[in-house]
Amino acid sequence: MESGVQGCILAIMILHDEEIAVTAEKINALLKAANVSAESYWPSLFAKLAQNRNIEDLILNAGSGGGAAVAVSAPAAGGGGAAAEAPAAEEKKEEVKEESDDDMGFGLFD
Fold this sequence. Notes:
The chain is 52% helix and 0% strand. The chain contains five helices and no strands.
């Protein structure tokens, strides 16, 4: 990740921590004060991100990644088909279990 992007991320976190509204001008001011050069479009993109998203949620969920996508086919005819498919997807989730050493036929100290 380039230093300009990292600088924008840190600037957003600083502004959010100080409870100051995040704008492209304020991000640029922090970058300039820190002697960090960034492409001219990064501060405005990060300012739009900060306006559209909750920064605390982004920070708290940074390492969580995304959930696994579940592929559900659409019913051929309209109706209650989607409602019937939802429980089937939940049942498949419950079937997934972690493997144990007992299933392999040996233990850690055998």
